[in-house]
Design goal:
Layout: H1 23-31, H2 40-72, H3 92-113, H4 118-135, H5 158-169, E1 180-182, H6 186-192, E2 196-199, E3 211-217, E4 220-222, H7 232-244, E5 249-251, E6 260-262, H8 265-276, H9 281-286, E7 289-297, E8 302-308, E9 314-321, H10 322-327, E10 329-333, E11 339-341, H11 344-359, E12 362-372, H12 381-385, E13 394-403, H13 410-419, E14 423-427, H14 432-442, E15 456-458, H15 459-463, H16 467-474, E16 479-481, H17 485-497, E17 502-506, H18 512-517, E18 520-524, H19 530-535, E19 538-540, H20 545-587, H21 594-613, H22 636-663, H23 671-698, H24 713-731, H25 733-752
Parallel strand pairs: 2-14, 2-17, 10-13, 14-16, 15-16, 17-18, 18-19
Antiparallel strand pairs: 1-19, 3-4, 3-13, 5-6, 7-8, 8-9, 9-12, 10-11, 12-13
Length: about 750
């Protein structure tokens, strides 16, 4: 595969195709197509946007019609109580000016109703969370893969959303010591909604540090390799198979220093074991020549090699999953160095040995061989390339048990996920008993009583089910053993059809379809291939499952912070909308003019979003179930808080609007001056209501909204800055004029764009 690296050996390469014509290119073209599928959060935001847009537009049109009818029918009075429009007497210019003023009121209502600050709030929340995660050495954003964050195309163009996003994260790109690399920023919030995680075993739940701790060689069970315990013939064949049937290599320095072994963790464990048996790697490999190789195949779970010896004998060596290779064996070598037929009792003995090792979480690998006639080997190169190595009538040489211990802390991480309502499923190519043992050790299975079908299932069994049966069975699966990459893909598809938000970990090239199919693909940074990484959304640089839990925690924090801002933003919009609509219909004027509302949108939206985006994740987030794909963005608790707070604000503002002159003792002042003072008080009260409402939005579902506030210095600073700017806005007229031009320039540019 293109992108792989040759680490050992030599050969001649013929380039037959490049670019998109290669296997790698074809694979990437099939998995890189943008399906246009939205994340769960985007779906919910679009629903909220559509609803608010329709309500705001409907109210604005209604107010426009009412005010125009009031004006042209003479029901709108001036300051002395006379009608502003009298047919045949009012000048056309005055009528046009009045109509423009009425249209401005309607536009103001639209500006109030539509929370155009929400896309910016989402971007700020995501970007700030990325920054905090990087400070925690958790996440880094890849700008090259930054998505379009304009969630509402009717409100902001993609260009503006990108500008906001790049400005927000421009200072956080040069962090190197990280645990994760985020290739798609929206994957973080999607991870917060994950309902299930399909995880690999090797290297993710375990350390991927393998050692042979037990073996059955011939009939003998051995724990520490000792060449003197083995017969000469068995020892020679076993060392030949280990040295030749491998993709690894062994380097021994001339000074007799430490042995250096390269290859996959499983290969390295077996090669180390061979060295301890007395294997001279280079000498054994030079004693015979390789005729044909059958590389290890994830479907067949084994790999083989055909060798020609100096005496023209041909040996075919196989190595792979113990129970699969054992099923092809008909003979074994006994203690007297004789090849003996394998009867039923011996077959049961070896099967029990495999099961016994697997129940102790050992990975079982069998090594076998058979002799072959040189005359039967194809002599033509084309035929030899298509030759299928004989895999029957094998002679069993050894069954080795390889220990790969669980990662420290993985049990706690799994328990955190389970408490958070996220089901962890292990999908592994290992023996079902090995998978069961690791699942029990890591806490994925609670007890032996849980280790029954369909909780514990083999990939082949799941593969043979109908689509309906797959969907029903998939929800109950905790462990899938002896699975292939295609089985993982089938499981992901079945879970997604049942409405789950699925996260998948993978490291191999064949995992690419499953990583791409999942809502969140998590590739391994150490063991992962380039194809797997290209197909993923997040790269786990330390291959540790605990890092996956960290993404879930931060993803939920992102989602919760966005919900906090939505509650805060909609309270502002509902209160301002109601006060302006009631005032416009009753008196023909609005207490909150366009400039004041633009000030609220420009300052409260931006600073409010940043204040609420800075709330760090808490343990409370991991004690509640995940947000399902079809659940509403605005919860019942949010509606309760929003409506109560909006009712409180509307009551206060309407009392000030209709009774402000008497409350402030302004009856002796001119109508124009009294209205200015009254409207200034309404505006100031409205802004201060939002300042205190930010505290309410911090903890939508908790009683104590001040908990932990002293630790969030940025929140306190932003609230203080908002109050200072508001004082400056009210006291200094020139600041108002400057803001007027800045605000309208921004919205005119947005309109023309």
């Amino acid at each position: 595969m293109s992108g792989c690296k040759i680490v050992d050996g030599s050969g001649t390469m013929l380039v037959t195709s490049v670019g998109m014509n290669t296997e790698w290119g074809l694979l990437m073209s099939s998995i890189s197509e943008d399906t246009g599928e939205e994340t769960p959060l985007q779906v919910r935001l679009n629903g909220v946007a559509t609803l608010i847009g329709m309500v705001g537009l409907s109210v604005a049109v209604s107010v426009l019609v009412v005010l125009l009818v009031r004006y042209f029918t003479g029901h709108t009075k001036n300051s002395v109580g006379n009608p502003q429009f009298i047919a045949g007497k009012t000048k056309a210019g005055d009528a046009i000016d009045a109509a423009i003023k009425i249209a401005t009121i309607a536009v103001t209502i639209v500006v109030v109703a539509v929370p155009e600050g929400l896309p910016l709030a989402v971007t700020l929340t995501l970007a700030y969370s990325m920054r905090k995660m990087m400070a925690d050495k958790a996440l880094v954003c890849n700008v090259g893969d930054f998505p379009s964050l304009c969630l509402w195309e009717t409100l902001l163009t993609d260009a503006e959303a990108h500008t906001h996003a790049c400005c927000a994260i421009g200072s956080i790109l040069f962090i190197t010591e990280v645990v994760l690399q985020v290739r798609r920023l929206s994957a973080c919030e999607t991870m917060g909604s994950a309902t299930t995680i399909c995880s690999d075993k090797t290297g993710t739940l375990t350390l991927n540090q393998m050692t042979v701790v037990e073996a059955y060689v011939g009939e003998k069970q051995i724990y520490s390799p000792d060449k003197s315990e083995l017969s000469p013939k068995l020892s020679a064949l076993l060392i030949e198979g280990i040295a030749q049937n491998t993709i690894g290599s062994v380097y021994m320095s001339e000074g007799g220093g430490d042995v250096e072994v390269s290859g996959s963790p499983t290969e390295k464990a077996i090669l180390f074991w061979g060295v301890r048996l007395g294997m001279n790697f280079e000498a054994v490999r030079s004693d015979s020549s390789v005729i044909h190789v059958f590389p290890f195949n994830s479907e067949k779970k084994r790999g083989g090699v055909a060798l020609q010896l100096p005496d023209r004998q041909v040996h075919i060596h196989w190595k792979g999953a113990a129970e699969i290779v054992l099923a092809s064996c008909t003979r074994y070598i006994d203690a007297t160095d004789q090849v003996v037929m394998m009867d039923e009792d011996k077959m049961i003995f070896f099967q029990n040995a495999i099961e016994n090792m697997a129940t102790r979480s050992l990975r079982c690998v069998a090594i076998a061989y058979r002799s072959y006639e040189l005359e039967e080997v194809p002599s033509d190169e084309e035929q030899l390339a298509q030759w299928a190595l004989p895999e029957n009538d094998l002679v069993l040489l050894a069954i080795v048990g390889i220990k790969d211990p669980c990662r420290p802390g993985v049990k706690d991480a799994v328990r955190l996920c389970q408490n958070a309502g996220v089901k962890v499923r292990m999908v592994t190519g290992d023996n079902i008993q090995t998978a069961k043992a690791i699942a029990l050790e890591s806490g994925i299975l609670g007890s032996d009583a849980d280790a029954t079908e369909p909780n514990l299932i083999e990939g082949k069994t799941f593969r043979d089910l109908s689509d309906t049966e797959k969907e029903e069975t998939a929800e109950r699966i905790s462990v899938m053993g002896r699975s292939s990459p295609s089985d993982k893909l089938l499981l992901v598809q079945a879970l997604r059809r049942k409405g789950h938000v699925v996260a998948v970990t993978g490291d191999g090239t064949n995992d690419a379809p499953a990583l791409h199919e999942a809502d969140i693909g998590l590739a391994m940074g150490i063991a992962g291939t380039e194809v797997a990484k290209e197909s993923s959304d997040i790269i786990i640089l330390d291959d540790n499952f605990a890092s996956v839990v960290k993404v879930v925690r931060w993803g939920r924090s992102v989602y919760a912070n966005i919900q906090k801002f939505i509650q805060f933003q909609l309270t502002v919009n509902v209160a301002a909308l109601i006060i302006n609509v009631v005032a416009a219909v009753s008196s023909g004027d609005v207490p909150l003019n366009a400039v004041q509302l633009l000030w609220v949108n420009l300052i409260m939206d931006t600073l409010g979003a940043l204040a609420l985006a800075t709330e760090p994740p808490t343990d409370h987030l991991m004690q509640r179930p995940p947000v399902g794909r079809r659940e509403s963005l605005i919860t019942n608790i949010m509606w309760r808080n929003l409506l109560i707070q909006a009712l409180y604000q509307v009551t206060i503002l309407l009392v000030l609007h209709f009774g402000g002159r008497s409350l402030l003792n302004l009856k002796g002042d001119t109508t124009e001056h009294a209205n200015k003072v009254k409207n200034t008080l309404i505006f100031n009260s409205f802004v201060l209501c939002q300042v205190f409402n930010e505290f309410n939005a911090r903890k939508p579902d908790e009683f104590n909204v001040f908990e932990g506030i002293t630790k969030n210095y940025l929140f306190i600073g932003i609230v203080g800055l908002t109050v200072v700017l508001q004082v400056r806005f009210v006291w200094y007229f020139y600041f108002l004029v400057m803001l007027y031009y800045l605000a309208w320039t921004k919205y005119l540019l947005l309109l023309f764009r």
